[in-house]
Design brief:
Layout lengths: L4 H31 L12 H24 L3 H24 L4 H19 L2 H10 L4 H10 L2 H28 L1 H38 L3 H28 L5 H5 L6 H21 L2 H4 L3 H21 L5 H28 L2
């Protein structure tokens, strides 16, 4: 997003309009993927696209508003919205499992959390800026769309693929093992990822702000050093979080959550490894859009779907634990691919 406020207003308007169009397309594509059983998505109902639209568009709007807050270094707001979003998401999903589980509570949780994020991020100043931006001439919007077209062209489809990759394991486990096993998997996953969500968002926002400023000032060497420093720091943080999560937390599952969730203790160590690798790449992920290299992330996205499909096919006749092990290895490997891509782009600075 550009420094000049007038130019930034045009950027915002362009992003919102283009995101709307791509969200409609992405939702229709998700329904088609379910209908034709691509990537094992036959477990999803064909109407999933209609419900997924507000989730996808909400994520796009959230990303846009987050960019405004990062641009203005409003990190307290960003930290608060992460807590609000994740708390509401988890609370809604848990409530959904208690009233019967299934697909609907998961989608409702995503919609509610996205709406809460947008409402909190979109303060009065942003509303006023949006009103001003939509008064811009259409030729200005077209010019911006052509100049910065790589963002909606690659970033928004990538967001869709990310959400598919996140949702598919839970839906497949629900289809193969039933809602009780799906709830067990979901609860174990939430336990290990909740700390990482807040840590990853904070590190990502700080990295985005510092890296973008260095890129704008053409300080390539300093930007490369910042990337390497953040990589070392977030890897250390990931290890500090992962070790107690994998060794201590499983022993207290029954005490903390009750005997109903005791089976989660066998899943947690594998999910911890998965979460630790995701923490590293998610914290550094702003490097590709900041360098206008969003197309390289599609390599990671497609690799993730292929590896997930292979893992779920391999584990088809296996136990729930074997499913989690296969998914963990697939995601760790895809995250390694993502990290290699980002490191290569850093070296090219």
């Amino acid at each position: 997003m550009r420094d000049n406020n007038a130019d930034a207003n045009i950027d915002i308007a362009s992003a919102i309009i283009i995101a709307l169009a791509i969200s409609i397309f992405a939702s229709a594509l998700l329904s088609l993927m379910s209908y034709f059983d691509l990537f094992g998505l036959d477990a999803l109902p064909i109407w999933v696209g209609a419900v997924a639209f507000p989730v996808i568009y909400g994520l796009a709007l959230t990303s846009t508003f987050r960019a405004i807050r990062v641009r203005e270094s409003e990190y307290i707001v960003l930290a608060s919205v992460s807590i609000i979003r994740n708390t509401l998401n988890v609370a809604t999903r848990i409530l959904g499992f208690f009233v019967g589980g299934g697909l609907v509570p998961l989608l409702v949780a995503e919609i509610f959390s996205a709406l809460a994020s947008i409402r909190y991020l979109a303060g009065k100043r942003i509303y006023q800026r949006l009103q001003m931006s939509f008064r811009e001439k259409s030729n200005n919007l077209v010019t911006v769309a052509k100049k910065w077209g790589r963002f909606p062209k690659y970033e928004l489809p990538s967001v869709l693929l990310d959400q598919v990759a996140l949702a598919v394991p839970l839906f497949i486990i629900n289809s193969r093992f039933g809602p009780d096993s799906a709830g067990l998997f979901f609860m174990a996953q939430r336990i290990v990822t909740l700390p990482n969500i807040h840590i990853g968002s904070a590190y990502s926002d700080i990295f985005r702000s510092g890296f973008s400023e260095l890129i704008r000032n053409r300080k390539a060497t300093e930007a490369k050093e910042l990337f390497n420093n953040f990589l070392c720091k977030i890897a250390l943080v990931g290890a500090v979080v992962a070790i107690p999560m994998a060794t201590i937390v499983p022993n207290f599952i029954g005490l903390l959550l009750g005997n109903k969730w005791l089976g989660a203790e066998t899943l947690i160590p594998w999910l911890v490894l998965w979460a630790a690798s995701s923490l590293i790449v998610s914290s550094l992920s702003p490097i590709l859009p900041l360098l206008q290299k969003q197309n390289y992330k599609l390599i990671y996205d497609i690799s993730t779907l292929i590896l997930l499909s292979a893992a779920l096919t391999l584990a088809r006749e296996g136990s729930l634990l074997f499913h989690v092990q296969a998914l963990a290895f697939a995601n760790i490997f895809s995250n390694f691919i993502y990290l290699v891509i980002m490191m290569q782009q850093s070296r090219k600075l």
